[in-house]
Amino acid sequence: MSAGGVTGEKVPASQVVTAIAATDQPYAEVIGDPISHSKSPLIHRFWLEKLGIPADYRATQVKPDDLPAFIARRRADPNWRGCNVTIPHKVAMLDLVDDPGGVRDSIGAMNTVVRGEGGGLFGTNTDAAGFYGPIADLDLAGQPVAIVGAGGAARAVLFALSRMNVGKVTVLNRSPLKAAALLGRFGLKGEALPLSARLPEAKLLVNTSALGMTGQPPLDLDLLPLPPEAVVYDIVYAPLHTPLLDAAEARGLETIDGLEMLVGQAAAAFELFFGAPAPREHDGELRERLLA
């Protein structure tokens, strides 16, 4: 990462510390592995510019083994306001920061770390709210739902669904045992199946996995079992038009792309980092920039 910190390229920790120490400007960032695909810097910098806030937002690649040391360095940096957390760190972060909101016992994954007023670090999760926003007007009471994946994002999605009185939930995952454990955790009735299983007749299909993301294997699903009124929601945003969404649109199904959830969860995190609500009245312009 250079002093600007937007490339997502990994550099030695000593260089990162030097680059950060050279400025007194507050900053936040997104961390993950991989991270070069992230659109979070564009989103947060867009909002910072609109509000005239003198701060920065970066992308930093952090390997799993380096996560504890990374958090220790950032804890010691008073200019650091926090970070968004993506694959594969959402569960591991639970052991590294405070959890005043009981995220461990509810969602079980953190996607945001914030420096509190006393200087300590605490974690929360804005994924559930970000996921729920685009489907808030969708009547899913008693309706069957299908989920692909059982990672950190799936935890937030299942947490949100558990509060929407949905019907049977089918989770497809490489490890059905892991998926079954999540259904039990969130008190949802349904079944866990391997990825190769036939889709159920679900009202909502959500891909919470990295399959279909740039550099990852494709998500190969036969959408034929889905009814005409089904909604297909893919949280992957790089590429934005995933093969899953293309296949859904070819069938005439309603689709929701990954930018909807990304911007929603980012807005909640932005206010925590910088103390001001994200200027959502500019969402149209932001989306144009993200698609450029």
Automatic annotation (TrEMBL):
InterPro entries: Aminoacid_DH-like_N_sf, NAD(P)-bd_dom_sf, SDH_C, Shikimate_DH, Shikimate_DH-bd_N, Shikimate_DH_fam, Shikm_DH/Glu-tRNA_Rdtase. Residues 139-195 form the Quinate/shikimate 5-dehydrogenase/glutamyl-tRNA reductase domain. NADP(+) binds at residues 149-153, 235, 258. Its EC number is 1.1.1.25. It is an enzyme of class 1 (oxidoreductase). One of its GO terms (biological process) is amino acid biosynthetic process. SUPFAM superfamilies: Aminoacid dehydrogenase-like, N-terminal domain, NAD(P)-binding Rossmann-fold domains. Residues 258-281 form the SDH C-terminal domain. Residues 30-113 form the Shikimate dehydrogenase substrate binding N-terminal domain. It catalyses: shikimate + NADP(+) = 3-dehydroshikimate + NADPH + H(+). The keyword Transmembrane helix does not apply. One of its GO terms (molecular function) is shikimate 3-dehydrogenase (NADP+) activity. Shikimate binds at residues 38-40, 86, 111, 127, 237, 265. PANTHER family: BIFUNCTIONAL 3-DEHYDROQUINATE DEHYDRATASE_SHIKIMATE DEHYDROGENASE, CHLOROPLASTIC (PTHR21089:SF1), SHIKIMATE DEHYDROGENASE (PTHR21089). HAMAP family: Shikimate_DH_AroE. Homodimer. This is Shikimate dehydrogenase (NADP(+)).
